[in-house]
């Protein structure tokens, strides 16, 4: 089992790969994107998925500092849906953020 972790931003997507057991992850690269131009880096992401024999994807969902979901969560979910539709891989989501 090899998973990719994606940290979706407005200009880049951070890509990390898990070890074969899924215990740890290490950075792979940062893919530049331009949401306004419809450039989402899917070609490069596909190359990584193929090279690394990826079997699933985890997309981080960043909460706001007040523990609410904002527009970046929506954008991250949309990106995950694109990845799922484009590559046919299972996509899970991990919520991170601040707790008070």
From TrEMBL:
Pfam families: RuvX (PF03652). Residues 1-95 form the YqgF/RNase H-like domain. Keywords: Cytoplasm, Hydrolase, Nuclease, Ribosome biogenesis. CDD domains: YqgF. InterPro entries: RNaseH-like_sf, YqgF, YqgF/RNaseH-like_dom, YqgF/RNaseH-like_dom_sf. This is Holliday junction resolvase. It comes from Oenococcus alcoholitolerans. The lineage of its organism: Bacteria, Bacillati, Bacillota, Bacilli, Lactobacillales.
